[in-house]
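Final report, closing paragraph on structural work. Over the funding period we assembled a curated collection of sequence-structure pairs, and we close with a single example.
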Amino acid sequence: MKLRPNTSHKSSKTIWSKPQTPKIGFQLLIAILLLLHLLPIWGFKYFPSQDGLSHLYNAHILKSYPNPDNYLLRQVYDLRLTLFPNWSSHLILLALMYLFPPLICEKILLTICITLIPLSLFYFLNSVVWSHLHTTNERSLPLATQSTGSRKIFPKKPQLLLFSGNFLGLVGFIYAFNYLLHMGFYNFTLSISLFFFTLGYWCRRQWLHRQNNLTLTQLAVVYILLVATYFTHYQSFALLMITISVLAVFSFTYSHVYANYVLTRAEGESCGPQYFIQSYLKPIATFLGLMLPLYLLMFSYYLERRGSSSRYHSFEELTDYFLSMKSLVAFRDDHIIIGQLLLAVFAVALVITLLTRLQKIQTRISDKIDRPTQPIWSLLIRPEDGFLLMAIILMVMYYQLPWSKYGGGWINDRVHLYIFLVLLPFFNLGGCRFNLTEQVSKNEESIDKKRWLSYARTTLGSVIVVLSLWHLGLYSQTYAKLNADLTKVMPITEPLPAHSILASGAGGCIIENCPGEWNSFTLAFGQKPKYVDPFGHLECYLAIGQDVAYLNNYEADTDHFPTVFRQRNLPADYLVVRHAHAQEIKTAKKEYNLVKQNGSSRLYRRKKNEPDFRLWQEGTTGLMIDFGHTQEGGGSGISVDINTHYQDQGHGWVTETKRQLFTCAQRQGETDLHGIWSNQDGVFRVDLPNGRYIVTSTHCTQEQPSKIDLIANGKRYVRNLSLNQHPVTTSYSIAITDQQLTQVIHPRQTGKGWGWLNCNIKPMSAE
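Its predicted structure, as stored:
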């Protein structure tokens, strides 16, 4: 069936309205607001978030893990290198850490998070209208066409960057500084902008199209954006899939009904069942088929976690949160009034939208020309109502979903952030809008051009800008005060020494409810931080150094992040104790010495044993360490087996790895050699007086040929040493300055191991 424009009414005008080109002043305003909103990020040393420093530390683990000299990190942690959500921010921080210091990396990530939210909203709002202006939109409704007889002529150069209704995108500056950003949920904050970029891209290509007309390239882009959202945050991905699905069905339904029961009714035509299947059911089925792999991805993740416990907030708590707009409040309640005023802006926009629509309905009904051709429902239901429907669905989800389930929390808070942002295209405040009738009368067209609507847009836009600057000013003031507190809280500000283990809490190495709430008044801030604990993971800053393993790393206790504990039950070299636990540290005084303290916390260092030089008695010319021999089995030197630990004596294994005894078979007539074999890193330490030494080691392997590196006291002395079933000897000279020699044997090939037969340490003065 070919749709033809109705040209019977010569007195009415076409619906095409030339889009307004963006004014330089509006673009300049956006640029200035972006700059202003980045000033508090770069103007203070610390960004006060609850989990931010924890994310920095775990990105540091990812960067440091491949280096075998970081043997404590490799012993305490393992990497979860699988495909799961929550990867994006860690990968961004990981890449940045090769170029910048950790705190600068966090600021760059925050810059991306904050700037992309308003930009994605502008893109989304533009995209809803842009789809009507696309010159290749042959299968869309005749919404943006000029009628000339029976032909449709599309505008030659439809250009649309910003239109007058897009001032609502300014709310993105308010939403950029939200509660969850200050919680340190960087992945979720990144996913907000991905949500609206993806939804905007889909709207540009499919909104109000009667058929699925995505090209292969466009479909690939949609898939890439959706998968990127999945790997950034699952809940945003799930909400995005639901939103696109609802809008797609609404779009196909509205387009089909309007085209076949409004336009054809005006021309006296009818549609049969076959046409209904081809023009309506087939596009929906095609869309669902195209999205099927992503639906499977969404439900597979959900089914893996559906058995977890849940926690619900009461209806009263959710209503108070909703009306107070607490998704924008982080540290103090002063931001509530800003959220409520923003809620009032949305309410005014809603009233104007409804009044404008009612006025158009009244004008249309009173117009005798249009009355015979328009059914009443087409005057009440508009295409932008799809966004109202989606906002209502999100509101129902907000009240029905638990606060925590499926292995995650803050579910209601995340949904709340999306409700009003998805609703923005529904608001009609005049300007460049498109009416889904083929022709409009002069009276109806004049409604959108009334001067009071222009004043309303200017007023509401100005209010939004003022609210965003007020919001920003309060947070800047909070940042300044909290930075003063953050600087004073930690007993030291520099990283801990290399090859250390750090713990925090009330005196033990493994603390329950770690790292503990700050739960205290802050002097500079002048009150307790109400919703976000910016001191929650400050110990992570001390651990961002060479090979410092933090035992209270909460991310390694969950399945949401790329790090996981391998071995946690280890004694801590350093212990940070909050003032709230100061009385409980008495039990640890026997094992730890107080290093530094201030009014907020204390830093303890584990008492170290004096180096054991019994093996280096006067006249000793060298030390031969035989691996694989027991004391009963004999050997030409000191015997070391798989359970010889350094903590018990002046030599031994430092880390716990899988080791085993092995025998290296030799040629007939030669004595078989005994040693220790492993396919993991081996770390062996010996106490010895300071000086210069020659270290000679003998290696072989009992299986396939392999290659190893040998690192001594942080320096790689042997690289790519090839091992086979015949002994291979290597030697190097080293200067000892801290009374210890720590050697790391690192297999370069996964799954292939090394064998260590013996090690001879000889002072150079003995030669």
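The chain has 19 helices and 23 strands. The mean pLDDT is 82. We thank the funder for supporting this effort.
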